[in-house]
Design goal:
By secondary structure, this protein is an alpha/beta fold. It has a single domain, classed as Rossmann fold. Helices cover 42% and strands 10% of the residues. The protein has 11 helices and 7 strands. The chain has a 5-stranded parallel beta sheet with strand order 3-2-1-4-5, with helices on both faces. A two-stranded antiparallel ribbon has the order 6-7. Strand 6 and strand 7 (212-213) form a beta hairpin. The protein is globular, with a radius of gyration of 20 Å. The chain binds iron/sulfur cluster (SF4). Residues 45, 88, 93, 95-96, 99-100, 173-174, 177, 179, 267, 270 line the site of iron/sulfur cluster.
Length: 272
């Protein structure tokens, strides 16, 4: 009870941010019976992949609790117009602010919140999260020493496993995310050609300057999708993969993707 107002203080809310990726999903499973009043949220940019929605549905069924799917007040294309067609990149990253963080902050309002985030104990990842003073971030995996093998075990034991897109992509988030490696763009082209086409249609040449607004700074998707370029990207990926295997034998995901690059660049609210 607040003495000044005479009203009962609102209880602190416990909220877990889901990205549709493996770590936040494992955290939801890990906390399900530890924090009974936990609220689950997923900030849906409207530009996610089908596999992400399927994975969230699987998790929702396991949890037996609803996942709040938060939408931005305007679609990506609206903000793109405001930014005059300049695509977001790792430096400006306006998409995360407008499509992920603002809907989350609206959902929280002025309530006091503990926000649970799925960074693991074996990561040294910083990220872009809300810094509102009423939102306190907590990292249970870091506190409890949970590492990647533990996460994979939690997912396997629950029967949920990994998201299907992990066959060809290392992160959750928008299909056009600029954090993707080139081999993942090739994966998008081969697994979701229509989404690749849509991503390509967002790329433009500025008539005033002749500069290209591309998802990859130095290469348009049209150039990347040429058969000879795809072959080159695949060969380069195989070479890196062999090198990674040589260095870290028997590390399953390291055989698929360069994780150090992933950890450095990924966005906490989008990709965990
Ligand atoms: S997933 Fe990538 S493109 Fe989508 S909001 Fe996050 S940083 Fe932006």
């Amino acid at each position: 009870m607040s003495e000044a107002s005479g009203k009962a203080d609102k209880p602190v809310r416990h909220i877990l941010s889901l990205s549709g990726g493996k770590d936040s999903t494992a955290l939801a499973i890990y906390l399900r019976d530890r924090i009974p009043d936990l609220e689950y949220v997923f900030c849906d940019t409207g530009e996610e992949m089908r596999e992400t929605y399927e994975y969230l549905d699987r998790l929702e069924a396991y949890l037996g609790r609803p996942i709040n799917r938060l939408n931005p007040d305007r679609p990506f294309s609206h903000f793109l117009d405001i930014y005059r067609g300049v695509l977001p990149d790792a430096r400006t990253r306006w998409c995360t602010r407008k499509l992920k963080i603002m809907p989350f902050e609206r959902f929280v309002g002025n309530d006091r919140v503990i926000n649970y985030i799925g960074i693991r104990a074996d990561e040294n990842r910083k990220g872009y999260i809300s810094h509102k003073p009423n939102i306190e971030p907590r990292y249970p995996f870091v506190e409890d020493g949970i590492v990647k093998e533990d996460v994979l075990r939690i997912l396997a034991d629950s029967g949920i496993g990994l998201p299907d897109y992990y066959r060809w992509r290392s992160r959750s988030g928008c299909y056009f995310c600029f954090f993707q490696q080139r081999i993942e763009w090739v994966g998008l082209l081969e697994n979701h050609p229509q989404l690749f086409q849509r991503a390509m249609e967002y790329e433009k040449i500025d008539p005033a300057t002749g500069l290209g607004f591309y998802w990859n700074q130095r290469e348009s998707l049209r150039a990347l999708s040429r058969p000879e370029r795809i072959e080159q990207i695949k060969q380069e990926h195989s070479r890196r993969q062999a090198e990674t295997e040589r260095i870290r034998a028997n590390t399953p995901l390291a055989a698929l993707f360069d994780e150090e690059a992933e950890d450095e660049r990924a966005c906490l609210i989008c990709s965990l």
